[in-house]
Design a protein that fits this description.
alpha+beta, 467 residues, elongated, homotetramer, six-stranded antiparallel sheet
């Protein structure tokens, strides 16, 4: 099924943001991998809930025996036993796609699967190119036709064109990389090879894993755990890895000295149990809480986090502040993605459906409440109201990141300025609006210490864009 | 949703047959046309039941405001009120796709919708190209990527490439036509134009209609009736029609002297109430029956047709033979497309579900039973058995076409040789196998008289293929 | 799933009309019967398209091993291979339900399946009781609860109550029959028996069939053909048949002298290939046409019927009038049950989607057009307009039944008076409204001759209701 | 839709267990309540995920204007905006149903909706009757028919019968209550009244809430929070509450001195933020952990709970043991109810999909791991293995309840004996089987202190059943 969709003309790609997860596996022993990709995509589901897909083939069969399936929905909605049984092979890639507002009916599920001069190719991609318009115009002037408005289709075109003149697909990928500006983690499946590339700035994460005779590549290391594989190492910014039936080759010719790793992965996007560029996300978030506690202490009785985004930082804050770390909310795990809107009269119904207060813990208490961000402020103000109704004496809000102030052009879906409360209000104004007794954000200068990285992109916080 | 699908490599297009229906309308007064396309496609449903789609835009709005929807299923299954309401505009095209065996899950619904240098383009196509492999190889060597295995994508590519160097899309279509070999009826929708082209041999039908300020194009004239429009004329073999907001231009530069119109349209494919190349299909089938009666009379009491394919020829036979024309079967109109297979013990259950005998008419009678073809012989033998059980004394089978003996390369889905009973058995052997008292086919030399055409393609009957 | 539904209070059953089909089979050899019931229900689909169901059990297994499935939709929509495979047993009944306006979401699919003192019971029922309100009040005053508003639930209650005091279920059925007023054909499946009963007036048809070791019961004989069984005889009005593993018993204690068989079955409701009370429906309809031709001749060139309801009577008319019988419409068999409403501007679009005119046959002709009824007149006037547009010189409408003038209380869904054009207009007025050149109905006094029955209910035509 | 289902004969009810949630609201001001019931059922979803339903009516309209909808699935799956909009009224009840093994296709969604002598009645019920067989036999011998195998249908029958002889429905409920043995919380909606009853032993919880002019009744107080209502009080064991347009009446004539409140509600079943019989569930679980810490200390570095069931008791344990309370697992909230089974080779894949270890917290640590139960031991042994792989030095398992050893006859779905690891193995054997370094359960004698109740049913732990 193709949903009803507006076809956008070339040159109007500015609104298209992508922030997704990719997973690839090559089982050299010939073992079937559809279930592994399923489990791996489940582990990466937090990176994208709009759509998902799997493309797979058998390296021992005839060339070009690829099968694939993709659709809108969660991994467990799109794939079941019967569907997975139709996907046969030992080499495959998968993708989960993020739902950017208003775009969740677009025909842009991945992997992108196509034929070109050398047979079939599948491509899964996390990221955003900056020079999309130039590339598309250039291709169009050469007679290209486009079925989608994704960056991925442009990349596929460039690879196909480069492949005409080169000896191997990995060389074509390297030639293509020279033309791409922006952040990306890219998986390409040819009939006999799995190729992985990370953008030279290292904006998007990508790592390598191993399990017996299988090599794996994923956006985050948590996907390896899910399939019983071991994390081997991060793929270097600019590195192109080619996995074949008998070797794994690294091409570092596109690597550069300076990087700009996305700090947002540590703060929000990556999963708590992942390791990114040598740093465990859990450790980074604990440190965020500790730094916050030192900079912005509060005279309080207990520390708690907004489930689940604020829990680790709250734990760190509690530790550094020597205060008890408490659960103060019950989370209704059955209300995942409901579309019943609350009555006008009770705007907090959406929050109430999802979270409720554990009164015995909060009654009469002064509380430090930690979260990783304030976007519009509606959720946090609802929670503060619920806490006060339940008898909390004070609620001190601590945010484990600086305020977002600048748009992201590299594929992270930060809300636009007019939706961000921080872009038009002072911290004190926001505090008053959400009904907190105090409010503090993490300081910009702590981001490096928090993430354990020196070569970060912090553009959404400070407006300093790499390139 | 994309169904699980095998991606076929370039160069293996031999199994892909298409026989579809197209419909286009340009309402210059600005009236919405989604409902018209829906009704038109319903009228063309007999040309393809696998999939269908509509692409539409508003010529008064911004350029490139196209919306579309396509899916597997009948027109009335894919589109309902709500879906049609999302398709807004006064210029649109639609397509119904034929179900070739084993292929009905393929991602090849049309219209094909894409972006190219001049914005958006939608393309709907009935037919089959002979030089697909050459064209695809040529494009691939130039770096093209293919999302589908359809001819339509190749045509779109050629148009896009030609468009880079030409002033108008219709010129690009003309340049493209020079490269295409085979039979096709093609509709192209650009933001402001509706372009229709029929292959120079005239293998596929295409005609022009009018309703008030609207111009229409369709595979068959029956689609005009369905929307209250009038048939204007057949589009000439090789003609390119360009319909814009203020004119309708005919480019006949690709037209040739010799044609090869598909005789199969008159025998089987076209609808009984359509007019094709100046001849009414009903008249052709009546004539088929008359010719059959003269050549192969039978000493019988009544004449009847197999519903619905044999009814008109039976009427003609009855007239010429001066015998009563009777209904002898009741057709269960609720059992359209069921998938319950009959028990091994009773192989005729499939036929029995669909048709049953009206005993009072056939009891004690000698019957001439007319149909348009015998493929495997299972249906006709089931019917003959049912008639005999109901008391018919004799059943004389008359087929209103010669036996199929040769494959079609132009997009009509004639079953492959090993499925055709006629390719390996004599008429007498077939008669014995199906249990008929006599059996006769129409003579090859009558095809011209039957169809009222001299420039026919009769390759499936005589093996003489047009170049 | 239960659809959203209004629960109607007791005593308000007047609007509930039923006109359905029933099918039962007992394979004493132990052969599985789910597929037979499926095929039988497909053959009875014309009697009801709203909902259907099957209840089945194995007479050799433990008692009370019944399984069942029912849902809204056509038989081929509700049941597929997988579903049928879950329905195991050699004794079963099935039901198709008629869609009365506005009622098609009601929770009243059959068979009704329940537990009572003797274990499980399934019940399928075609007809309508006149004393529903009295029966329901009586039961309610005794503490009964009702899950549905169907007559069937009342019958089941009465049987269960009678069964407490009687030795066999068939005796309980006989006791229950004494309390029922109205027309009904009833099938009851107990763990080891199949019981069939027809109302003493014979208002609803029911007949007995046989196939090897299996006995079958069905609303119409066409269902026997569909499963390769033979028609044995009609079940007598008032007869109760009990089929067990070793005998078939007839209880005629409820039979009466006077009957009131529904004439509507011959005119419209029953299938053309069925035999009802010794008369073949096809013969009756041919006779209807013949009688019509004698009473209401027309100076015409050809005779044609409205597909499919008027075809047989048209054939009879043509025969008696010695005029050619012609097909003049093409019927689009893909447009079964669509819900796209035509534009206001073109009210005949609904008809045009379904039927189109074969111009070569009608052009310049004076036509007799036969149908079995005129309800609101919209269809026939649309057809007449289409015929005139196609060049017909005159259209003489002949209706093979008298005008409906009175409501039916026995389960046939005749539209209410204010929808019937005949209830408020003279024949001449109707002729003018529909645009016919002449109009005639069958005479009331011919109904007996047409149907070959003397003991008919013709209440809908003459207002004389049987008690 | 009715699913394929086996009809069970009367007298075989032993396998039917129910453990559900009920919610009722009467908005005397006339405000619509469908959304409130939706939110309330969402809050009670943990009590049953198999099926749910809502029945509603307008007390100001005509009598018997009830509408309802029920289906298999979660509340957010069954109801959406459009569905809720079809459910109109100010008085309604809802139900969520628990999925007992192998039973989730049974036609037993609630509320049960029916007609009886006084019009319509809807009934929602949590619990299990002990004397089902006697009641059903008694009714069957009086001629009753049963559509379901639920206790609820029996209760409805008894009420309908009592109502014939009594003046009000609440009196009929009181008469019915005298016949019921077992645990139940019952809501009955008549056209103008909402009646709530709790079983005399108090086995099932039920409480009263208020919001403006509305009275509410729910299984747990958390449902009141979800709709912005206030908890008023628990409904007393044996109390019948009747809520009408102008009063709320309490009938305590069925109340007894001795109660047997289900201790399992505090341990496992009720939501952490609910208050049951005056005790907050959170407090009870914290106390469970504290008691466990005192009885079964461990020489450890950190304390953690299995999400989400062991978290509160782990917090209590940590407090009492003065050890840090840590999160050690990441829970994948997207993998709710998936049906992909893990490979044979990796049996812990199911657990791994749902939970993963936060390595930095557990590496090198001695861990106390708290959960509320061990059923088969597969989950806990998987978690212990994952912790050891992540570097945990020791894992000391503490269970915040005694081992289940006896079946529950009152509607709580405790697995049968042969599935319970504790019924056939000593604690030391279980410890070895799950790979823990130590294992301890809560002592039976602490249950009263934990729950703050003296009149408990602890039959599943000690085999002493209330009569």
């Amino acid at each position: 099924m193709w949903n009803v969709q507006k076809i956008q003309p070339i040159g109007n790609s500015s609104g298209v943001k992508e922030a997704c997860g990719v997973f690839g596996i090559y089982e050299r022993s010939g073992i079937q991998v559809a279930n592994d990709i399923f489990f791996g995509l489940c582990a990466l589901q937090h990176r994208g809930q709009e759509a998902c897909g799997i493309a797979i083939s058998d390296t021992e069969g005839t060339r070009d025996n690829m099968t694939f399936y993709k659709n809108l929905g969660l991994v467990t909605e799109v794939f079941d036993h019967r569907r997975l049984d139709t996907l046969s092979g030992n080499l495959g890639i998968g993708h989960v796609r993020y739902s950017t507002t208003g775009d969740n009916t677009r025909e842009n599920a991945q992997p992108l699967v196509l034929n070109y001069i050398k047979g079939t190719m599948a491509l899964a991609h996390n990221g955003n190119l900056l020079n999309v318009d130039e590339l598309r115009q250039e291709l169009a002037h050469d007679g290209a036709i486009f079925h989608t408005t994704t960056d991925s289709e442009l990349i596929a075109y460039l690879i196909a064109r480069a492949r005409v003149k080169t000896k191997s697909i990995e060389t074509a990928v390297a030639l293509t990389a020279e033309k791409l500006k922006g952040g990306y983690a890219l998986l390409i499946k040819s009939p006999r090879k799995l190729i992985a590339m990370r953008d030279p700035l290292g904006l998007k994460p990508l790592c390598l894993g191993k399990r017996g005779n299988a090599w794996l590549v994923a956006s985050e290391s948590c996907a390896f755990e899910a399939v019983g594989a071991q994390f081997v190492r991060d793929i270097k910014p600019g590195e192109i890895l080619t996995i074949t039936s008998d070797e794994i080759r690294s091409d570092t010719s596109c690597c550069r000295q300076t990087h700009a790793k996305c700090v947002f992965e540590y703060i929000y996007f990556a999963r708590l149990d992942s390791m990114i560029d040598g740093v465990h996300v859990y450790d980074a978030r604990i440190r965020a809480g500790e730094l916050l506690a030192k900079d912005s202490p509060a005279d309080a009785d207990i520390v708690a986090g907004v489930p689940d985004s604020g829990l680790a930082a709250a734990r760190g804050y509690a530790k550094a502040a020597s205060l008890p770390f408490e659960m103060i909310f019950y989370k209704n795990s059955y209300v995942g993605r409901t579309f019943i809107k609350p009555n006008q009269e009770d705007r907090s119904a959406g929050v109430r459906m999802k979270l409720s207060v554990l009164k015995p813990v909060v009654s009469g208490k002064r509380i430090v409440l930690v979260d990783d961000s304030i976007v519009r402020g509606t959720t946090i103000s609802g929670l503060i109201r619920m806490l006060k109704e339940a008898g909390a004496k004070e609620v001190h809000v601590r945010i484990s990141a600086p305020p977002f102030l600048f748009p992201c052009y590299y594929g992270t879906d930060v809300p636009s300025n007019n939706q961000l409360i921080a872009s038009s209000h002072s911290t004190e104004e926001i505090r008053a609006m959400i009904g907190a007794d105090s409010l503090a954000y993490m300081k910009l200068e702590h981001l490096s210490q928090m993430s354990g990285q020196t070569d970060l992109c912090m553009a959404c916080f400070n407006g300093t864009y790499p390139v």
